[in-house]
Write a structure and sequence with these properties.
Blueprint: H1 9-12, H2 15-20, H3 26-42, E1 52-53, E2 75-78, H4 84-92, E3 96-97, E4 106-108, E5 113-116, H5 125-131, E6 136-139, H6 143-152, H7 164-175, E7 179-186, E8 189-199, E9 202-210, H8 215-229, E10 234-238, H9 242-246, E11 250-252, H10 254-264
Parallel strand pairs: 1-2, 9-10
Antiparallel strand pairs: 2-4, 3-4, 5-10, 5-11, 6-7, 7-8, 8-9
Helix pairs in contact: 6-7
């Protein structure tokens, strides 16, 4: 990770990023990953049945396999389109999409899961100092800029899971009032931010970026303070990372995560633009 472009492990350390460290180059990784998906579809894993490839039209139901049937890496299903309704149904079941360009959509439900209770955010001394600087935080004023910045940061250009299809799908969800962005500005320039999905009293974090040191952490801090004020139950951080655990996130098993999610979804969704500034 570089200072110029720090993507917090909060959202970006899905299974491929850990796998990539095992290979010498991008070609080796992609060959391995294609073999991995192929083996799933052929049912080569002993613990679970083959990953299901489901192709549904917008007029059909958006059912997913039981999350407990995912493989050891959390891969649950292969195929399907990124329609807004399908994505929302996935999140309601603790499932999220992640795949690379040229691949079918891969749907994941990892075990264990990393969550952060908003009022348990660990504010470090160094971050306190950064908060005193002349940063400004806004919400839902530059969603496309944020998601595009997350996708095109220099150390991840042409090597990102945030595909054009993902950008369009999540921007559509933003227009529908389910996807939200927190933007950090310095001298009228966008220098950091994050985006995610809100359903009930749960927020599903997707990605972060920064161009100035601590800008993404500041966005995350304001996310936590805002969700605390609104009595949100938790932030889904997806894959366990040391970085997020240092900020207060905790590892829980999938059953506990699904129980918390079911409880959070009882509440109405705070749908629409979250136009606030700090």
């Amino acid at each position: 990770m570089t200072i110029d472009c720090y993507y917090s492990e909060l959202y970006l350390t899905r299974i491929s990023f850990k796998l990539k460290t095992l290979f010498l180059n991008k070609i080796e990784f992609h060959l391995f990953f294609l073999i991995l998906v192929y083996n799933h579809c052929k049912g080569q894993f002993d613990r679970n049945p083959p990953v299901q490839e489901i192709k549904l039209s917008d007029n059909e139901s958006y059912s997913f396999p039981n999350p407990e049937t995912s493989d050891d890496n959390g891969l649950l299903m292969v195929g399907g389109e990124l329609s807004p309704h399908r994505i929302l149904q996935a999140y309601k079941q603790g499932i999220f999409p992640w795949y690379e360009p040229g691949m079918p959509v891969l749907w994941w439900s990892p075990n264990p899961r990393l969550v952060l209770i908003p009022n348990e955010f660990n504010l470090s001394r160094s971050l306190k100092k950064s908060l005193k600087k002349d940063f400004k935080c806004t919400i839902d004023t530059a969603f496309r800029q944020v998601i595009t910045s997350c996708a095109t940061c220099s150390d991840r250009f042409n090597n990102t899971w945030i595909t054009e299809e993902m950008i369009e799908a999540y921007t559509h969800l933003h227009f529908l009032g389910f996807a939200h962005s927190f933007e950090i500005w310095y001298e009228n320039k966008l220098v950091g931010g994050l985006y995610g999905i809100s359903l009930g009293k749960a927020f599903f974090g997707e990605s972060m970026f920064h161009k100035i040191t601590d800008a993404s952490k500041i966005a995350f801090y304001y996310l936590c303070t805002t969700l605390t004020d609104w009595n949100f139950d938790f932030i889904d951080c997806q894959i366990p990372t040391n970085h997020l655990q240092s900020l207060g996130a905790k590892i829980i098993d999938r059953k506990e995560f699904l129980r918390l999610l079911e409880k959070a979804l009882v509440h109405p969704t705070k749908q629409g633009l979250w136009r606030l500034s700090f």
